[in-house]
Every structure is written in C-alpha cells, then in structure tokens.
Amino acid sequence: MAVLHRGDTELLTKGLQVWLDGGDLAPGGRVTNVRSPAGGYSGENVLFDVLAGDQGPSVGTYVARFAPTGGNFFFETDISVHYRTLEALRGTGILAPGAVALENGGDNPFGRPFFVMERLPGRVPSEDPHYTIGGWLADLPAFDQTQVYRSAIEAMAAVHRVDPASLELGFLPVLADPELAAQPRGIGGDRVLFERFAARVLGDRDLPVLERARGWLRANHPGPSEVRLAWGDAKFINLLYTGLDVTGILDWELASLSPPESEVAFWFVHHESVTGEAGHPDLAAFPDEAQAIECYERAAGRTLGDLTFYKMWHRYRIAVMALRLADLLEAAGQIRIDLDRPARLRAMRTLERHLSQV
C-alpha cells in the first residue's frame, strides 16, 4: 500500500497506476506526468495525465483530490460531498470539473479516501504575489481586468440560476442532517453547521468580539428566504480563466443551499479581506460594489436584497476561520499564539471595527 507523500512522484505514479489498472477509465492506459502542487488544509491535489497505452494518445488530464491526513482545517472532511456535488452538476452547464471516480474508503492503493475529477483548462489568479499586485491579472490592461472581474460575477450568477430542485442534492449537510434540515429556509442550516465548527475552534477560549457578533447576527437575522445552490467558496483564486473568461469553478467542498445574497456578500467580504484589509491595493479597473451588483443582477435575472446581514455573517466566519488557521500554524511550529493573540488577529480587528459601525 502506497503512502501519499507530496513530492514523491514515483510513489504517487505507482499508486495511481494501480488504481487505473483496477478500474474502467482507460483499460491498458498509463499514468504519466504526475505532479503535486502545494495544497491547502482541507485537501491535497495530485495532477496526472493518462495515455492510452505506453505510446498511445492522451485519454485525458485529471486531478486526484485526497482527504488530508493531519491538520485538517475542518477537523473532519467527507470528500464524498465534494465528489457528489460535481456529479450533481454534470449536464447543468456550470463550469465545474467532471466527476470521474470516488474511492471513499481505505481499500485503495493509498489507504485513504480520494476522488478523481477532470482537470479543466485555464489559469488561476496569483496568490503569491497577490493577484492585484503581480501575476497575469495585474499585468492586464485596465479594460481586460474589468472583463475578468465581470466574468467571475457572471459565473457565480450562472450557479444561482440553476434550480436546486432539479438536482439530486440530498447528500448536502443542510439537507442530510436532520437538525440542519429543520432550520428555517435561508442560512439557518449553514449557521448551525458553522457554529458546530466554531465551538471546536474556540474550545474554552472566550473572545468577546465573537460573542458580540453572534448577538448582532441573532438580533438582525433576516428570517426565512429563498435559497439557491451555493458554490460555497466564491473567490478569485477558485476560478480558472482562459483568456479573459472563466472556464472553471473550483473547490465545491462547501456547497450548500443558501440565499444568493449570502454568496455575493462573501465574494465582496473575502475580496476586501485580501486587498484593503491585508494592505494590498485593489485594481482600479475592477467594478465597484454597485457596478458588480448590477452585473450580477443582469446575469442572474434577479434583484439582490440588502447585503448588510450577510456581510457581517461572513466577517464573523472569516474571523473564526482565521483563528483556526492560526491554531494549525502554531501546531506546525510556524507561529506562537500567546494569550491575547487571537483578539489581535487582523480578521478579529476587522470584525470589531464593523460591529462598531452598525
């Protein structure tokens, strides 16, 4: 049994070849060109190609996504939810990778769950350097930068145009978990699910800013509202581009059913958190929020409601997730969190400032 070790391409190639030989994707095919880019805390990706025999033509190019072995950001990861979301999206026109195969147990060459999806063409906006200060997006002419932004908004709107009732989505936590399914329509299920995560992150730590945020969210909840399919991680670095147009929407592991206002608000809040809040200048050619909303409404064929509540909700989520990331970095020996450090995290200060303004 192979043990997944990023960078050990020989071992990865052998394991994937054993997997390929045991399935029907490409009988007699050969795994080649295996590479393992840096991964995140919620999964590890291995890219590979398949040829039809030793010297045959290309069958396709694929991504194997593995459940993390340690330092799991979400504590536990059921990769079948990600895979089944991709399965459900097949034939909808949404630019998601095609689902190929799921190995959800340990009886496989790697001894851990993984799934295989098609690798879509395109390039992702740069994280290092940040896409607003370096990389292909920052280097584009202003007019083209505007088109790149608009294409992202249009891709998100396309997700929200799909009628969730037309899809087999009963596996999503907000539907499969009885407590979550019993919550009022809107973000009720998402909130309960996230609070379970937040409780594990916080442990016995007391952060008054988070409690104030919870109080504000309880007092200002908009009530039941229409839900649509939500991508769940709407940000530039989860998009693939060919030219100026989105050709792929990545990372569906947090897919859910929620109001479109919530996902649009997350797009704005996350972009704000990695530009102005992080000390990076935004691109002047990017549409402002009003222009982006106009673009979304035109593409989605619907009018958005007020985003104030949903922006605060996502600032709260980002603050909790920033604490989780800090904990993981401390566990890896990369930083040290002293007793008052959590309250001084940038995301906590951002949340505090916005709470003081409402």
Quick structural overview:
This protein has 358 residues and is of the alpha+beta class. Helices cover 40% and strands 13% of the residues. The strands form three sheets. It has a five-stranded antiparallel beta sheet with strand order 1-2-3-5-4, sandwiched between helices.
Would you mind describing this structure in some detail?
The protein is an alpha+beta fold. The chain has two domains: 9-118, Phosphorylase Kinase, domain 1 (2-Layer Sandwich), CATH 3.30.200; 142-355, Alpha-Beta Complex (Aminoglycoside 3'-phosphotransferase, Chain: A, domain 2). The protein is built from twelve helices and nine strands. It has helices at residues 9-21, 79-89, 142-161, 173-176, 178-181, 188-202, 208-219, 260-274, 289-300, 308-331, 341-344, 346-355; strands at 30-35, 44-51, 58-66, 99-103, 114-118, 228-230, 239-242, 245-249, 256-258. A five-stranded antiparallel beta sheet has the order 1-2-3-5-4, with helices on both faces. The chain has a two-stranded antiparallel sheet with strand order 6-9. A hairpin with a 6-residue loop joins β2 (44-51) and β3 (58-66). The longest helix is centred in the last third of the chain and has 24 residues, at 308-331. It is globular, with a radius of gyration of 21 Å. The model has no long low-confidence stretch (mean pLDDT 92).
